[in-house]
Every structure is written in C-alpha cells, then in structure tokens.
Predict the 3D structure of the following.
Amino acid sequence: MALELRVFIIDAFTAKAFGGNPAAVVLLPASHSLNDSALQQIASELNQPMTAFLQPSGADYTLQWFNARTKGRVLMLDLPVTTLHSPVGALEISRRDELLTLRLPSSLSEEVHGEKYQKVLQAFMGGRLPTTATVSFHYAQAVNDLVVLIEGIDEAVLRACSLTQEFAAASQALGVRAVTFAVPGTDYDSLARVFHAGAVPDEDQVTGSAHTIIAPLFHKRFGKSTLRALQCSERGGELLLELSDDHVLVSGTAVTVLEGKLTV
C-alpha cells in the first residue's frame, strides 16, 4: 500500500525565498516501515543539500537528516516543535514571533600555529591580504573545525576570494572537517565563509556549527556576547548569536517555499 508523506522545502536563515540554507523536510507517521536506505532514496529524489525526516515521539519529534548521498548535519527547521531527538542528542528549538532559535553546545577553540595553516590562508586569499591585516588560527577539537580570524579586511575582499586547487590541497592536508574564514564587520558583528575540507571542497550556504565556534571566539576577542552574523555565501544567511552558559543560541528566520505530498 502506498504511503503519502507531507513534504516541505524550507529556506532557513533568511527572510526571503531562494536565500539562506535550503532543505527538504519530510513528516513521517509515528509508525512506518521505511529504513535508512529508503530514507536515503527519498533524500536523493528530493535532491536538496539536506533532507530532514521528522517522526512524532510523544510530545516531541525524532530527527534524522540526509543529504543527497549520505547522512548529514544539523539544520534549522521552521516547525512548531520544542525538542528534536537526533543522532547527536536532544536539540532544543524555540520560536518567538518569526525568529526560530536552536540551542547548540558552544565549541571552544584554541589558537594554533604552523606553516600548514599559513598555506590555507595564502591559497584562499590569493594575494588579497593587506600587510596591515592581522590573522590568527583557531582549532575547535569538539567539531574538528578550523576558524581563520582575519582582522583588517572588509566584506568585499572576503567575497572576492574563491576556491582554488591550492586551497583544496591545503585544506585537505589539515585533516579538519571544515575551514571557516571569519572577519569582524561593520553592519554585522561577524562575516564568515565556510568550506568543507577535502579533495573537492564545497562552500556551505549557512552553517550553524561554525557559528558555535565564532560566538565564543568573538566574545573572548572583542567582548561581545550577542552577535549579528552574516554568512557571505552565494545565497547568504543572517544569524543572531547569543552566548548562554556553555551553549550558543543560534537564531534566524525561515521561509517555506514549497509544500506538497510524496508517494512512496
């Protein structure tokens, strides 16, 4: 017997359609026979950067997420839920008017030094780094990410940098999950670009996990406990970051751009 599932496509961390982080959301019934292989097939069919599967669990929901090829990472959902029980633990979501807030563990980082980090910087900047700029490298072991903090460049310079073969090789040599370039801004407290490291690195549109490193780092560096952040990707994304004990409250708006039914 065919199973009909409600499906949404949601753009998160944006107030307008076709911006922010696009994701599909599939609502599963409380009882179903779909295994991980079937869920992966659905995610591949929907072909979004991320597909979330929500299943009722008492007053809350359980959450699994996949990209078009493999299980993926945490994303923001525009749904009236309070707690999502996911493979990485319980994720708390709250809503105030149009603002959705995800409570994530803070990721503390340590400053690191070495030629391999300089190679990543040089490959990304491509000669655009002014001599007056100050650069430091920060490694967050909990999420295996590197943040390159650059003081002394503006948004235009950050956006002008692009992926190169040299950057791919240098980032892969680090053995990290992702490389984030973070810059103090003027209209925004933080500007960032985030790249998944590897043989074929790709740029993430909006990355909550990267900002769980940026928030405590900027607090330590600049004394700010609340940040307005802009991720300078092609689609762009706006986030509000607030430190709360050992967590970061990552907030943003989301737009539902498609709603329909999937028959499997």
